[in-house]
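Obj.: predict assembly geometry.
Materials: sequence records (below).
Method: joint structure prediction, all chains together.
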Amino acid sequence: MIEGIDLVVTRGLVETGLLTTLPLRPGDRALVAEGDLVAPDDPVIERLRDPVVEDALVADGPDVRVGARWSGEAAGTLRRRVAIADGELLAPHPGSAGRWRVVTADQRDLLLSPVAGAVVAVRPGVAIEIALSGSALRGVLAAGTISHGRLELATDRGGEVRSGSLDVGRAGSVLVVGARIDAEALIRARAMGVRGIVVASLAGKDLRDFLASERRQRAGIHPSPPFAVLVLEGIVRRPIPVSTMRVLEALAGREVAILTEPPALAFEGSGLDLPRPAPDLVRIRHGAHAGREGRFRGLAGRRRFDAGVHLEAGWVALDDGTLLAVPLNDLERRP
Amino acid sequence: MERVIPDAADRSPGPRAFLAVDAGTVTNAVSLIGRVEGRWRLLGATAAPAGVGVDALARRVVERLRRADAAIADHLGLAPDRLARLPRVTSRTVVPPVAAVVGGSGRVAARLASAVTLAGWRPRTVAVHDGDPLAITRVLLDPAVDTIVAGSADPPAADERGHLVELLELVLAALERRPELTLVLVGGLGRQSARVEDRLPGRPGPTLVAAAIVGEGVAEPLTELMHGLRGDDDEGRHALVTATATLARVLGRRLEVVEIGANSGTRIRAEIAPDGSVGVASATIAAAALVPDEVPDGVVDGVAGWSTLRLDRLRLRDRLRELRVAPWGEVHGEGAELRLAAARAALTRLVEATPHLSTAVPDLVIAAGGVWSVAPGSAVGLALADVLRRPGAAGLAYDHARLLGPLGTIEDEVERHAVIGDLVDDLLAPLGSVVMPAELRAGRAAGDLLVHAAGGMSELALVPGGLELVDLPPGEHATVELRFRDPVVLGTRGRRFAIELGGGLGGLLVDLRDVPLRLPERPDRRRELLAAWQSALWAGVEDGR
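Observations (raw structure tokens):
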């Protein structure tokens, strides 16, 4: 082992056995149970759209408890009697025996599993946890609704996609769009039926604009299919790292899923020959050479960098033969 | 009690050294401490992002020692194959936990949230009075929530009496779904704790009761209870408080520690009573993290107010979000300046959140947290003086090796006192001293200053609004004589003062600016002024621009 390489942060490139969480809000119905195996497109959650709370008289029984499903008629005057089809018992009404608060809604949406895996926990009103059967590539943040589609490369790792270049020909795909994408292109991609975007960086303004658009979209009577964006690196523009791009190239044409909790790109790794980075391969994450990769050549000692800051550095040999002293904090290994 | 640190009297061939490990949420710091010539001494320290293992850092520190002085390494038994057996004292910092805070009225909920905030928790606050049951249940069931704090006045006030039954019902319903949650019942609601046991017998999570909130401060029973729930004694910030108390006793001085971390900020005051006992008050504030979650507008404005970089709001927000994602990334160049601006803004939030700790000027202000390591001592001293605006004189120091936290985990007080007593000259890097008079009349020479140091006497004119730096190296002490034309406030009101002060990496900073500091409203003029002050004290800062 090269001296000092253990002082470089290690972040696994591809993980297995990742646990993903699907939030369950009060009233949502879990369609799976602990121990169930799920496949992509299996229904897992029935979500209430615009849930409301109704009062109901509930006859006592062994199944009457917080979080249980219940159907019947809401309490109220004879003029205002509402049928509750499959609501959830939220809490007993204080001060009146047999009277409960029930969460229900007129409209419900089905949430389909984007991945194959095993359900490890179902906590009504809280979350469902699924252990992935495949592998995953982690990102730093994800926004939107979990989704899946076939992976397509739209640009090279340092490129950028403009909204005009997206058309319905990309429908059903998860697009890798290089260094950055703006909100306009994200919104157009969703409108064109694209299922997800994988990008190196996303500016805060574009994320905020996209989230606002996504909220409006989900509030509609006929919302568009699920769409998610996965940010691999951070906020400030930079290219997708070479080693990550090689994994994405190997996945091109395959089904992948974008998860939001944790942010990750999930895929079935069986039969896939993923590139294995060399053990001394390091990536420069920050600074003037951000995004470049090279071979770690040992410790360079404490050095003075811009603004008179003294930092522990390491030698990195780039592909073009350049030897750079880079702060160890700006380096990363992804074995 | 099991001894973690090797006994000083131990003559066995085992290692006569130990590692002090500060395992933070984003940083691991390792210090090597060995017994040299009858004293514990700091022999080396290093820090790296949390993704780098403690063992790798320990190896690096020991290797450095071997290269620098193999004889000491041999004497201490620091052979490479013995590293794994080297005793360790470890403090671990935790991410601020989340509490769902629910009160019968908005007023009570706000007071509960305030008490919880001072204990380093992130509250999600709702009131039954004006909330709907579904929204309240969503807050209580948020997967991020670790603890529910529910309370009322004692006795319940008129505006909450009608809502307490419902409040309790919603809390119990949430606990049925998540029985593992800790429940804290406060004030009048505490009398309902038996109902929780009746309804949910044997649930895994504890139910605790705290007395009603009567004032506003860290001594509130709820704040103390929540402090305890945040972590054990080896939790980094608890240990920092313990070590500060011991350090105050060792030094016999009033201390103030301001720690800015990646996920929280902590302020600690240690006062010496006339009988020699030490009183400690502290608060940990999640919102005083270097860059809090989600980077709210107030945080962006705060950093913009201290920034010397020409960044528009959107770019500044993005840089701060990037700093949140990668706290160790690009700590040089512009990154260093951005960090120091963010540190000033975080310190401002910390001071604003803890007015009860803004009492008399302490003898020594200690900066803690990795963010201060990016700048030279003089620039750190300036940053502290920019925010901690109190008329008086104080020494400034930096916990450069992040030793205070780990040393605070030594259980036995006598042992802790002995170790900190030995290490006191090593664990604090002296930044210098600051003299900050207030109520100077603007626009004319205010008087003059005489510094009597070992190297001779120096004299300079005191110009209101200015900053003067007097070279006073670490280890040196000087008598500073200040003669003002008009009365000023410097601890007390007067015209002539003589103060004994210690030197440091930044020397003696004579700060004649306004107290509190007034900066130009126009961003470009403010930036120019801040840059002028900073560049005078930070050699090389303009390299990165």
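Conclusions so far: DSSP finds 16 helices and 21 strands in chain B.
To do: check interface contacts against the pulldown list.
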